[in-house]
Design a protein that fits this description.
- The complex is a heterodimer.
- By secondary structure, chain A is mostly helical.
- Chain A has a single domain, classed as MetI-like (MetI-like fold, Orthogonal Bundle), CATH 1.10.3720.
- Chain A has helices spanning about 35-60, 80-85, 90-120, 125-140, 145-150, 160-165, 175-190, 195-205, 210-215, 220-250, 255-260, 270-280, 285-315, and strands at about 65, 75.
- In chain A, a hairpin with a 7-residue loop joins β1 and β2 (about 75).
- Chain B contains 13 helices and no strands.
- The two termini of chain B are about 40 Å apart.
- Chain B is mostly helical.
- Chain B folds into 2 domains: about 10-55, no CATH class; about 70-275, MetI-like (MetI-like fold, Orthogonal Bundle), CATH 1.10.3720.
- Chain B is globular, with a radius of gyration of 24 Å.
- Classes of the chains: A mainly alpha, B mainly alpha.
Chain lengths: ~325, ~280
């Protein structure tokens, strides 16, 4: 896998431009190959017409009132001030989403790391367990899985019954403002397989000698975990943290389905993207929805930046292979 | 500290793993059985196994809604997912080849830009994109779902294929070029065939993600005729009456079948793809 990291400039002789090789001087290497743009055209078109262009337009729209039928009306920072000072449902969606991110991401990463450590052995049937744990990561994002989840957590459903068997009588999870969000968090955690597989790959990279040497020196399992596994795994933890957080901010399907399409009991499942969808595509307040999208972008950028900044403090890179 | 004999520890390990398997797979097993239970048993009896097998849910659910059968929804979903796979494989491998092998100005900057778009929330481009497709009269067609893929907007896959292509020895395509192959033929006959594993991974994930996609399809499709499977299932979102449970779970189970089949067929490759590239499920 190390070959995947080959540096850009070729070590071998420079790739010849166009057809045939006429011994071009090495100095002309920086010139563009005409074919490059043929290959890049679809991507460039997409980048301009579907990414950069729309981004500029949505930034503009975020300062307007726009309903798609009449032309946009400039309102300055009106959308943003309305959002943070007058729109209770917006603030509710921010709260719900933040709780979801702050609870589900650490929980999911903890579970996936623990299970990955459990699977990091040479025992038989390992592949089977790994596959079984990974399956929900593929299925869990679907409407079908969310419908199942809703039924499992309904009043009188299996979860109620099983918990009651252990003496814990819970209300109908999906209809209770507090439990409802918890059921969505659990649906997220259920999909721990993808980060688990990435953790497992990371764990396999940690040289066994490190653990052996520490064990000989008398370090117990917990200390080895704390002082060897965690630091050696920190780049992978970092990667998973960033990716999972970005995903969690944008969660939509489970909230839509479990909240019955309208944000759940007392708006307890009103996720950010759900409210954005409602504002944009049911009320056709496209300007306001664009403003919401930009706030989301800025928040994700800030969170990512913070994680990257603090990474210096807790992410350990082996000097030998300075990655990233 | 007592040291258990190896076999006992191994046994304990298997027990623990199997308990987790049971918890993790319970919802899926539950669904499979719920889809063949009599509706009044689905929530009221905890036992997984039904007292008798009933397939009414499947026949009733298959009738669909508003005169459009669920078969149609499946057909639409397969069409969208199939075209998305073709579009993604083609466009992303073209862009990836340029980034991995060709020289052009601003290559570094453009590559960095592409990586940044990986983190971009889809919502910042959503509304203008919607307006564009609306003006072009393409809302309520499959074009808005497929065209972005034809233009390689899914940077994840471009990145995945770039990384893979960089691992292919350069000598191979250089040899082809020395033998007089054009850049295009080198791409088509040398690099592309060698990139097959990355293309297969791209196809599988594109299929599954498109199959599961709900948000985009809900935004762009509003005729029942055009509905895909997730939109068909959406009709059940408001149902809380038990009479509809049979149909709801039968169709949910069917909706998951293609993913389960894909998973069983490509399980190894999928898991490997995740661990080497950090792809999410």
């Amino acid at each position: 896998m190390t070959t995947l990291r080959t540096p850009d400039p070729p070590v071998a002789p420079p790739a010849p431009a166009a057809r045939g090789r006429r011994g071009r001087p090495a100095g002309r290497r920086r010139k563009s190959q005409p074919e490059a743009f043929a290959f890049l055209t679809p991507w460039l078109l997409g980048a301009v017409a579907l990414t950069v262009g729309p981004m500029v337009v949505s930034l503009y729209l975020s300062f307007t009132d726009y309903d798609m039928f009449t032309s946009p009306k400039w309102v300055g920072f009106g959308n943003f001030t309305h959002m943070f000072t007058e729109d209770d449902r917006y603030l509710q969606s921010v709260t719900v989403t933040l709780i979801y991110v702050l609870v589900s991401v650490p929980l999911k990463l903890t579970v996936s790391l623990l299970v990955a450590m459990l699977l990091n052995t040479r025992r038989g049937a390992n592949g089977f367990y790994r596959a079984a744990f990974y399956a929900p990561s593929l299925l869990g994002a679907s409407v079908a899985a969310a419908l199942v989840w809703r039924a499992l957590f309904m009043g009188g459903g299996p979860v109620n019954e099983i918990l009651a068997f252990f003496g814990w009588h819970t209300p109908s999870w999906v209809d209770d403002p507090q439990f409802s969000l918890a059921s969505i968090v659990l649906l997220g955690v259920w999909q721990f397989g993808a980060p688990m597989v990435i953790f497992l790959a990371g764990l396999k990279q940690i040289p066994a000698e490190l653990h052996e040497a520490a064990a000989i020196d008398g370090a117990g399992a917990f200390r080895r975990f704390r002082h060897i596994t965690l630091p050696m795994l920190s780049p992978v933890i970092f990667f998973n943290l960033v990716m999972e957080a970005i995903h969690a901010f944008q969660a939509f399907t489970p909230a839509f389905v479990i909240g019955g399409g309208r944000g759940g009991p007392a708006d307890a499942d009103l996720f950010y993207t759900l409210y954005l969808f409602e504002v944009g595509f049911q009320d056709f307040r496209m300007g306001y929805a664009s403003a919401m999208a930009w706030v989301l972008l800025v928040v994700i950028a800030i969170v990512t930046a913070i994680v990257f900044r603090t990474a210096k403090l807790w992410v350990f890179y082996d000097d030998a292979e300075d990655r990233k | 500290m007592t040291v258990l004999p190896r076999s006992a520890r191994s046994f304990g390990w298997h027990v623990l793993c199997l308990v987790i398997v049971a918890v993790v797979l319970y919802p899926l097993v539950w669904l499979a059985f719920a889809s063949v239970k009599p509706p009044d048993e689905i929530l009221s009896r905890l036992a997984l196994l039904p007292t008798r097998f009933v397939f009414d849910g499947y026949t009733k659910g298959w009738e669909g809604a508003a005169g459009v059968g669920f078969g149609r929804f499946f057909l639409n979903s397969f069409l969208v997912a199939g075209l998305s796979v073709a579009a993604n494989v083609l466009s992303c491998s073209l862009a990836a080849y340029a980034f991995a092998r060709l020289k052009f100005r601003f290559r570094g900057a453009l590559f960095a830009f592409m990586i940044t778009t990986l983190m971009l929330p889809y919502h910042v481009t959503l509304i203008p994109q919607y307006v564009i497709f609306q003006q072009a009269g393409l809302v309520n067609t499959f074009v808005p779902l497929i065209l972005p893929k034809l233009l390689a907007t899914e940077a994840f896959f471009v990145f995945l294929i770039v990384q893979f292509m960089r691992g292919i020895p350069r000598e191979l395509d250089e040899a082809a070029i020395i033998d007089g192959c054009s850049v295009y033929r080198t791409f088509w006959h040398v690099v592309l065939p060698l990139s097959k594993p990355a293309l297969v991974t791209t196809s599988i994930f594109t299929f599954i993600w498109t199959w599961n996609d709900f948000f985009t399809q809900m935004v762009y499709l509003n005729d029942t005729e055009k509905f895909t499977v997730p939109l068909g299932l959406r009709l059940f979102v408001d149902t809380s009456s038990e009479s509809n449970f049979g149909a709801m779970f039968a169709m949910s189970a069917l909706a998951l079948v293609p993913i389960v089949l894909f998973f069983l067929a490509f399980q190894r490759l999928l898991v490997e793809g995740v661990s080497t590239s950090g792809l999410k499920g």
